Amino acid sequence: MPLYLDTHKHVPGLTAEAVAGAHARDLEVQGKHGVSYLRYWFDEATGKVYCLAEAPSPEACAAVHREAHGLLADEIVQVREGA
Known about the structure:
Helix content is 30%, strand content 31%. The chain has helices at 16-29, 58-68; strands at residues 3-8, 36-43, 48-54, 75-79. A hairpin with a 4-residue loop joins strand 2 and strand 3 (48-54). It starts with a strand and ends with a strand.
């Protein structure tokens, strides 16, 4: 299954608790879309968030975020794991 990294360039009012809650909601609905969110990273100072997911398409990744919390990524790119 392809890997995708999505970028949220600025989430206003971002906190560790808020991003953990959004990720938990992603996990609740991801199965409906054939997606598996694996990890996320964030920077409270800039409001940036990055999410890594296995998914059939970038549209499936977006569908999970849309349904879970409405915080859509600014960019979704396919990535490959390297050493």
